[in-house]
Structure formats: structure tokens, C-alpha cells
Amino acid sequence: MIAFIAEPHPGIVCWIHWLNRVRTSMTNKLTNKLRFGLIGTGRIGPVHAETLAFRVPEAQLVAIADPRTEVAQKLADRCNNPRIINTGEELIADPNIDAVVICSPTDMHADMVVAAAKAGKHIFCEKPVSLSLKEIDRAIAAVEAAGVKLQVGFNRRFDSNFLRVRQAVESGEIGTPNLFHIVSRDPFPPPLTYLRPSGGIFLDMMVHDFDMSRFLMGEEVDEIYATGAVMIDPGFAKEDDFDTAVAILRFKSGAIGTIDNSRKSTFGYDQRVEILGSKGKIAADNRYANQVVVSGEKCVYQDLPYNFFMQRYTDSFTAEVQAFTKAVLEDKPTPVTGADSRMPVVMALAAGKSVKEHRPVKLSEITA
Ligand SMILES: NC(=O)c1ccc[n+]([C@@H]2O[C@H](COP(=O)([O-])OP(=O)(O)OC[C@H]3O[C@@H](n4cnc5c(N)ncnc54)[C@H](O)[C@@H]3O)[C@@H](O)[C@H]2O)c1
Prior knowledge:
40% of the residues lie in helices and 22% in strands. By secondary structure, the protein is α/β, with parallel strands linked by helices. The strands form three sheets. The protein has a seven-stranded mixed beta sheet with strand order 12-11-7-10-9-8-15. A six-stranded parallel beta sheet has the order 3-2-1-4-5-6, with helices on both faces. The protein is globular and about 55 Å long. The two termini are 34 Å apart. The relative contact order is 0.14. The chain binds nicotinamide-adenine-dinucleotide. The site of nicotinamide-adenine-dinucleotide (NAD) has 24 residues, from loops. Nicotinamide-adenine-dinucleotide is lined by residues 39-45, 65-68, 87-88, 103-106, 108, 126-127, 153, 155, 204, 309.
């Protein structure tokens, strides 16, 4: 049975790929839906569960796994009653599931990707796949050997404002990009217990912005100089982490840019991008629940932007899962590949090294 072949001989790899394609297309013909299992019901799990249950007609959420079964049950109650399973590992072994969405803590992702690939499941995995390049490579190799699809949750690529920024760069509308800026600040910090397994600010938070820098500019970064500070909660220092950080990027073309991150922005989720090119600039501002501007006797003002990722990026979370489902059903490449999952981690490791060594670090220095 394909599900239990550990390391297939290269000669039979193409058979495995073919069998997995037949299996998915048979499932699709029988039910007309891709059967999903969701792993982890913490902060991001419910976002994807609701997308699968209500916003992707070609998807069916059939099972949810979390050791916190009472939390999973509450989520199941509002998402068309998928089955509850104790752990992601058990869910992956279920033959009635075609694709898994991995939303467990980061340090579990790589093992789950490998197990899911060996079980012939298509995989949507939250970012990052691992904090270790060796582990990411192991996961990508398992996916390639099994011939299943892998998409990683860099959802910001699917945001309509940022897609417009990408279009302006790609089409030459703003000329040659010279300067690039991302502001990316959370409204409040996560619990301190979240920090260690997350890998810290560069691997957990700025990793999104590193992905966006490659995606929006359409080119790779050559060198990073980063610095960090603890300005919000001294608990971050005890966890060997920062709550405030800046990275300066030098792209291969010579263009330069900055990313600034904070774990606390008192006015809401601060998510902005600006690129200055030889023919103009393009900027994406924060998103608001309404566009109303109030003009009074002393000032002109508007309500706060969306408070956090669940509200701000709802559309992009939906679009990324729709794109994944389509890629599986139509047997096309996923829009965010295993290779796309690796480079932002290389960049985050370079940023970490830069802070430690107080110097700019070339990405070519990061080999493992
Ligand atoms: N794309 C985004 O914008 C975004 C946003 C938030 C989190 N994330 C990523 O999603 C992942 C999860 O983050 P979170 O904030 O939801 O974490 P969380 O700690 O809130 O949730 C993790 C959940 O996984 C469960 N879990 C633990 N072991 C399990 C197992 N063996 N099987 C099944 N479930 C298990 C936990 O009980 C918990 O409910 C992280 O990798 C994070 O980087 C991405």
C-alpha cells in the first residue's frame, strides 16, 4: 500500500505519483469534493476550519484533530459537525481524508508533513514548515517522493491590495523598484509560552514579511542587516526573544528595503507596504471595517483599522485555501511551493545571525 512505503526506490516514484493522482481524482468523481482533515484548533485553526466548512464549495471538512477535545468540539459544532480526533497523527492515518491542513505548533509541522506525505495526503501547512532548514528539506523530499501537493500558509500573497502592488512591480507601472518598505505590527503580543516553539520574532513574525519581500519585488534578497529590542514586555528577554525588530534588506538588483515589526501596536493591526520605483510609487495602507471619515470642529478622524489577522486577512485566508483546493483537484502546481517555504526561513536565520554578530549577513552564509 502506497501509504506505508517509507523511502521509495526512484524507479517506483512515478507510479506513486500516478496512484495518488488517480486516488484524488476518483474521490473527486465520487463525492465531487476534496475531503479535508484539520489539525490544531488554536488561533489559526478555526480560521481555516470556517473557510473549509463555508467558503470553498469543492471542500468538505470531515475531521478535526486537537488533544484539547472540548475546544475542537466547539469548533466542530459551528462547522457542520466534522468528526473529532484526538491527535493530528491519528487524523493523518485516516484513509477517508484526501488533504490535511496543519495548524499545530510550528515544531510539529515537519513530522506531520512527512507523515501526511507518506500517507498520500495533499498538504496545506501553516508557516513555517520548520525552524530548521534540514527539517524543511526532509519535509520537501517526502512530499516530492509521494507526489502529493504542498502549499505553505503565506496568506498575505493572496491579499487583494498586495496583489495590486505585485502587479504594479511586475508590469513596470512604477518603473524599476528602488526602495521597499514593510510595516508589520501586531496589536498585542502572543502569550509568552507561544514564543519558544515559534522560533522568535524573525522566524515566527518577520518570516511573513520576508516572504512578501521576495513576492512583491519579484527577486531574491542578497544580504540582511537586522536589529532587535525588548520594549514592550521584559518576558520576551527571558524567552531569548525580541518584541521589536527592524531588518534592512539588500536585494540582488541593488534595491534596498526595510521591514519593521512590533508585537504591540495600540491602534490595531498595522500592515502597510510601500515601493518606490523609477516612475512612481505604490502604497498599500491598513484595512478598515469602514471607510467613514468624521470631520469635527477640532480634527478629522476615522475608526481604527482591523484589529488582527483573523479580521484583516479573512479574504486572503479564504483565497489561499481555495487556490490549494483548485491546485489539487486540477493537478496543477500550488501557488506557494516547498521552495517558497524555505527561503523566508533562510532570511529569518540570516536576520538572527546578523543581530547576534552585529553585522550584515549574506544569505549565502546560511547553509543549515
Ligand atoms: N498565516 C498566519 O497568519 C498565521 C497566524 C497564526 C498562526 N500561524 C501559524 O500557525 C501555527 C499555529 O499557530 P497558532 O497561533 O494557531 O497556535 P496555537 O498554539 O494557538 O494552536 C495550536 C493548536 O495545536 C494543538 N495541538 C498540539 N498538539 C497537537 C497534535 N499532536 N495534534 C493536533 N493538534 C495539536 C494545540 O492544542 C492547539 O490548539 C504556527 O505554526 C503559526 O506560525 C499562522
